[in-house]
Description:
Elements lengths: L1 H30 L4 E3 L3 E8 L3 E10 L7 E5 L5 E5 L9 E9 L5 E11 L5 E11 L1
Parallel strand pairs: 2-8
Antiparallel strand pairs: 1-3, 3-6, 4-7, 5-6, 7-8
Amino acid sequence: MNTNLTYFLFVLIGMVLLSACNQGKKSLVQEGKAVLKFxxxxxxxGNVKNGDTVRHVYKFKNxxxxxxxxxxxxxxxxxxxxxxxxxxxxxxxxxxxxVEFRSKDKVGTARKEIKIYANTEPExxxxxxxxxVSQ
Length: 135
């Protein structure tokens, strides 16, 4: 009976130690991530006429300890076009994502989500462009 209790304690201690090791690995991985911090994540362009083009610049800072690499910026509609620098943003440096929205034939409420894919945690962050398009 004593042997079974010893074995059980040995296994339990081993599991606790392995769990602690996994936690350490997770934090090391997170240290290798950039931190993308936007000044604003949503811009309301108000009311524009059908056919107008709206442009806005989303400014951000890399608050991480490694260079920030924006891999992609995706939108669901080809009426919205994001552009950004393909160069890595060093820790502490600032950058920007320019977004252009073409309102032709988009009458009504416009809410455009731009998904930013980068070497961050989480990997995907969203910024939004909203407003109204009238005739």
